Amino acid sequence: MRVLVTGGAGFIGSHLAERLLERGTELTILDNFNDFYSPLIKEKNIEAIRKRGEFSLWRKDLLDKETLKQLFKDRRPEVIVHLAAYAGVRPSLENPSLYSDVNVTGTINLLELSRQYKVRSFIFGSSSSVYGVNSKVPFHEDDRLSQPISPYASTKRAAELLCYTYHFNYKLPVTSLRFFTVYGPRQRPEMAIHKFTRLILEGEEIPVYHQGESQRDYTYIDDILQGILAVMDHPFDCETLNLGNSRTVRLMELVQLIESALGKSAKIKLMPAQMGDVPITCADISRAGEKINYQPVTPIEEGVKKFVEWYRGNR
Description:
- The protein is built from 11 helices and 13 strands.
- The protein has a domain at 2-182 and 218-245: NAD(P)-binding Rossmann-like Domain (Rossmann fold), CATH 3.40.50.
- The longest helix has 21 residues, at 96-116.
- The chain has helices spanning 11-22, 39-50, 65-75, 89-94, 96-116, 151-170, 192-201, 221-233, 251-262, 286-292, 300-313; strands spanning 2-6, 26-30, 56-58, 79-82, 121-127, 174-179, 182-183, 205-208, 215-216, 219-220, 238-243, 249-250, 267-270.
- Helix 1 (11-22) crosses helix 8, helix 5 (96-116) packs parallel to helix 6 (151-170) and helix 9 packs across helix 11 (300-313).
- By secondary structure, the chain is of the alpha/beta class.
């Protein structure tokens, strides 16, 4: 199978790339190695992937149409897992145009070429942020999505709608996977678990927003990969699935778990909620369980310990 993974040098993408190479996949990775966080981290991820096998690496941008055309012409991908995006709720409030360009226009560029080259399955990495301020918990795929509160959330929802548009008009098989706060080895450094671990070890104060009362559905990377690979093995004509752990964890509880794993107390600074942050996320995963036998197996207590162990070895 010929697979293109966009954002393949990033957190989720690099783990997926390793799994695909273990399966003997003919793999192409597209990543522009931008400086949202240190490109050296992505370089290290690529080094790890190379230990698993050979692949084609394109250091290019989703907005470079001519390069994308050449990639499709040369590599002829049958399956696309589209993970490349500008991520993060708060940064999107500072530069909404960039998020729109990459997350929306970049997705259109891929969809258009997928249509032309008759791709067999287009899998889009969406986000729990599309649910916005949702008073109905847990979040179900059929919930009304009318209150996104960040440009990032809006661009992810727009990309989901574009996927449906290409399915409806061109019969392109599409699946949107709504990821719920993914964590684990190689997690982006600005994400809470990574950031808190670093600051606690360095003896620095950690900012705990929403007075520590916000709740998130933290999902370990291996459980997310389980869902992605299941969809690749059994593609849909058109589907949307939540991939989460279906358990909420208070932010202060998360801090305590990290403290326990590190054996060191945190210096905590309680802060008000930040613009763009939702108070809670929680996935209803019944549809994913029914459709792809999705069953997350890593509780947050175990996942945090695994992350801390990785962090200590990769500081």
